[in-house]
Design a protein that fits this description.
By secondary structure, this protein is α/β, with parallel strands linked by helices. It has 19 helices and 25 strands. Strands 1, 2, 3, 4, 5, 6, 14, 15, 16, 17, 18 and 19 form a twelve-stranded mixed beta sheet that branches. It has a four-stranded mixed beta sheet with strand order 20-22-23-21. Strands 7-12-13 form a three-stranded antiparallel beta sheet, covered by helices on one side. Strand 14 and strand 15 (266-269) form a beta hairpin. The radius of gyration is 23 Å and the shape is globular. The relative contact order is 0.16.
């Protein structure tokens, strides 16, 4: 019997009317805005109405350093939510929205997998409720207003060589990384160098995800720095009088999206910043709403714990005053053997030696969560049929030595039923008191914050700052931005900034080549290695396999 694809499984389940899902959470018809029968937005007024209600338990799902073998973090997050609900716990899942770039690029769909998915998966993976398009429109309106201001006399004295605001599109398009625009004569604008970022890496995305309401959104938008004058003074969105118009474009996008899993567990899918080039977490309002609506709020942070989890703690929790109760670290035996040097074609073979070599990657992530951030953790082994008892026993033993229990997860194949063991361990550790702390404090200089993350979280010996990056750090500090947290843009494939250094590398340094200010979002971005804020499509993009038939049925979407 042929194994069904993710999209075939998703299409085989009839979703419940979304109004009924909302009602199960205690939401009223006035709290939601329907987007058809199976999607809705929850109005921010509902969060205000619930502000006196006690919060549920906050559980973060992260993972080991990604490999081509895959880890299944989103799948585990969804399956854990379904399993907790099977155990009688009122649970709400809070996820990010997929970007069209990876959907048509390397990954295909990004709404979970197997029998642990959020639906309607086609809508979620494509245009969904239009949030990312609204973010792109707001970003590009601001870009247009910057160039329009310059065209009509440049009253603010913007230096066209120091414009930092870039245009965006939600697609992997390397051709747009660096461009020249305004060509063709005066009526076409002012010629200058420009560039595009992918929409999910933009500051507007970060601002939306880190704003608590419309007033906060407008205030944060007004702080965005779009460039500098000839005497190096920052020029803001507020000086261009653009924040009101941008907020109008984002007025619906700031409301969290409500959908459901295959087992009808409520899920809030909202905000989509990448974790390798942005802060990698869903929105504050969605997470807070999940905490008010459920006994357990299960959320995830992108890529490995060195990226998404670190930014979840040091940026999102710092900004929102969140205090997590437990962390799930997702791993697979296959991925650990990949970190141990095994080729992808031989990962199904038992290889205890390679597994031992790859395990230090998992151990470092456990140490980061439990020792650096002071939180209890459970390792979720996303089990494959080829995993042997001897391999699983090695993982259990090595994790136990670090103080983290292992729970097998089979949610891809069994849905919530396959996550019961994991759910029980999450309930146990989330009930324990913890010593949650951030890895650096606000008063620490920007340069030292970057070095602290590199040393404590990545295990680096130090950081090499290119002269331009050092100069920018000094300038931003002089301008009063030194107290902001830092968001490090780094490859997801290694603790280092070299994707070839897998496992738990030692004896390396991180190179910071560029620094960007995200004053509206409230952080400083340090760009390391060869990381790009506009990805490119692979040699064989997923788009080649995606199709639709005459009845409107989509195929090939993972």
């Amino acid at each position: 019997m042929a194994v069904k694809s993710d999209i075939e499984i998703a299409q085989s389940v009839a979703p419940r009317y979304i109004g009924d899902i909302a009602e199960s959470l205690g939401l009223t018809r006035q709290d939601i805005e329907l987007y058809g029968d199976y999607k809705a937005k929850i109005r921010l007024s509902a969060l205000k109405r619930l502000e006196d209600k006690p919060d549920g338990k906050l559980v973060l799902v992260t993972a080991i350093t990604p490999t081509p073998a895959g880890e299944g973090k989103t799948t585990t997050t969804i399956g854990l939510g379904d399993a907790l609900r099977r155990l009688g716990k009122k649970t709400v899942i809070a996820l990010r929205e997929p970007s069209l770039g990876p959907v048509f690029g390397i990954k295909g769909g990004a709404a979970g997998g197997g029998w642990a998915q959020v639906i309607p998966m086609e809508d979620i993976n494509l245009h969904f409720t239009g949030d990312i398009h609204a973010i792109g429109a707001a970003n590009n309106l601001l870009a247009a207003m910057v160039d329009n201001h310059i065209f009509h006399g440049n009253q603010l004295g913007i230096d066209t060589r120091r414009i930092t605001w870039r245009r965006c599109v939600d697609m992997n398009d390397r051709q747009l990384r660096r461009i020249a625009d305004g060509l063709g004569g005066r009526t076409y604008g002012v010629p200058r160098e420009d560039g595009f970022d992918i929409t999910v890496a933009t500051e507007i995305m970060a601002v939306l995800c880190l704003s608590k309401d419309i007033a906060d959104l407008k205030n944060n938008l007004s702080k965005i720095v779009v460039g500098y004058t000839r005497d190096q003074k920052p020029v803001t969105c507020g000086q261009l009088k653009a924040e009101g118009a941008l907020a109008v474009l984002l007025k619906d996008a700031i409301n969290p999206n409500l959908v459901q899993t295959l087992e009808h567990t409520p899920a809030l899918v909202h905000g989509g910043p990448f974790a390798n080039i942005a802060h990698g977490c869903n929105s504050i309002v969605a997470t807070k709403m999940a905490l008010k609506l459920g006994e357990y709020a299960i959320t995830e942070a992108g890529f490995g714990g060195d990226l998404g989890a670190e930014k979840f703690f040091d940026i999102k929790c710092r900004k929102a005053g969140l205090k997590p109760d437990a962390v799930v670290i997702v791993a697979t035996v296959r991925a650990l053997k990949s970190h141990g040097g095994v080729e992808k074609t031989r990962l199904s073979e038992e290889n205890l030696e390679a597994l031992e070599k790859g395990l230090p990657n998992l151990i470092k992530h456990i140490e980061n969560i439990t020792q650096k951030f002071g939180l209890p953790a459970v390792v979720a082994i996303n089990r494959f049929p080829q995993d042997t008892d001897a391999e699983l026993e090695i993982v259990r033993r090595r994790c136990a030595e670090t103080g983290a229990n292992v729970a097998l997860s089979e949610v891809w194949a069994k849905g919530g039923e396959g996550g019961i063991e994991l759910a029980k361990e999450v309930i146990r550790i989330a009930a324990q008191p913890n010593d949650f702390r951030l890895v650096y404090h606000d008063r620490m200089p920007l340069k030292e914050k970057i070095m602290t993350i590199a040393r404590e979280i990545y295990g680096a010996d130090g950081v090499d700052f290119l002269p331009a990056a050092l100069k920018e750090l000094d300038r931003l500090t002089a301008l009063g931005y030194g107290s902001l947290p830092v968001c490090i843009a780094k490859t997801q494939y290694s603790f280092s900034d070299d994707p070839q250094l897998v496992g738990r590398p030692t004896g390396f340094k991180i190179t910071v080549r560029e620094v960007r200010l995200s004053a509206g979002a409230g952080f400083v971005v340090a760009i390391t290695g060869d990381i790009m804020t506009m990805p490119g499509l692979p040699k064989v993009p997923a788009a080649e396999k995606i199709d639709i038939d005459e009845n409107g049925r989509i195929t090939g979407l993972f």
